[in-house]
């Protein structure tokens, strides 16, 4: 359903299990960045009323997820660590050329967001099925559906605001690029990398 061309190696879960504190910190910041991205779309494209409405709801939902992850960190006697660079997102954002029209810029942002949500959903599924921590397994299972909904929402908006054929072609190219990117990632206890 997600269309990802390269699944995460299940051994990634073994890396995560060795440092739960690190994955939870990374996950918390991913949720915060997702909320920030939703807000940036509102600021950048205020005339797109349907997008503004959906991004307002998304920002609230992502901050709710941030709070849930933060609660898990506190429950385990830890504190939220410092933010880390997200190598996956940094490399992913290099795919589309800079410049172009405002509409093209919007479509590219939406496709990037769809990809990040698709990979997050795939990672949440893997954690829900493979992690040897019943509480976290259930937690990630509960978040999977919302990530899948976000992925489809971003793709729907990209197709709405761009030429459907061009958007679908760009999406396939981005999927290929992301698969190549993932060959060098998945070796750290981070949500995407």
Folded structure, characterized:
The chain is mainly α. Helix content is 73%, strand content 0%. The protein is built from 7 helices and no strands. The chain has helices spanning 12-17, 20-44, 49-75, 87-92, 102-130, 134-161, 164-182. The longest helix has 29 residues, at 102-130. This is tRNA-(Ms[2]io[6]A)-hydroxylase. It comes from Flagellimonas algicola.
Task: Please supply descriptive tags for the structure shown above.
mainly alpha, about 75% helix, tRNA-Hydrxlase_MiaE, tRNA-(Ms[2]io[6]A)-hydroxylase
SSE topology sketch:
Layout: H1 12-17, H2 20-44, H3 49-75, H4 87-92, H5 102-130, H6 134-161, H7 164-182
The biggest sheet amounts to:
none
Kindly, what is the distance between the CA atoms of the first and last residues, rounded to a whole number of angstroms?
Answer: 21 Å
The number of helical elements comes to 7
Q: What is the multimeric organization of the chains shown?
A: single chain
User: What portion of residues is helical?
Assistant: over 70%
Shape: globular
Helix/strand/pairing class, anyone?
mainly alpha
Q: What's the SSE pattern?
A: HHHHHHH
Strand content: under 5%
What does the radius of gyration come to? 16 Å
Query: What is the β-strand count?
Result: 0
Average of per-residue pLDDT values: 94
Low-confidence stretches: none
């Amino acid at each position: 359903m997600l269309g990802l061309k390269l699944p995460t190696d299940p051994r990634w879960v073994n890396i995560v299990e060795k440092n739960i504190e690190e994955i939870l910190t990374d996950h918390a910041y991913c949720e915060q960045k997702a909320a920030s991205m939703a807000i940036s779309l509102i600021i950048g494209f205020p005339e797109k009323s349907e997008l503004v409405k959906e991004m307002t709801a998304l920002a609230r939902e992502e901050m709710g997820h941030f709070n849930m992850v933060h609660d898990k960190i506190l429950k385990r006697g830890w504190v939220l660590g410092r933010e880390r660079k997200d190598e996956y997102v940094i490399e992913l954002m290099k795919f589309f050329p800079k410049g172009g029209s405002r509409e093209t810029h919007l479509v590219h942002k939406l496709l990037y967001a769809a990809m990040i949500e698709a990979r997050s959903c795939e990672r949440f599924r893997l954690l829900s099925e493979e992690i040897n921590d019943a509480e976290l397994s259930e937690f990630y299972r509960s978040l999977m559906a919302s990530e899948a909904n976000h992925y489809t929402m971003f793709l729907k908006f990209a197709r709405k605001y761009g030429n459907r054929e061009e958007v679908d072609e760009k999406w396939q190219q981005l999927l290929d690029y992301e698969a190549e990117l993932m060959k060098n990632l998945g070796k750290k206890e981070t949500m995407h990398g």
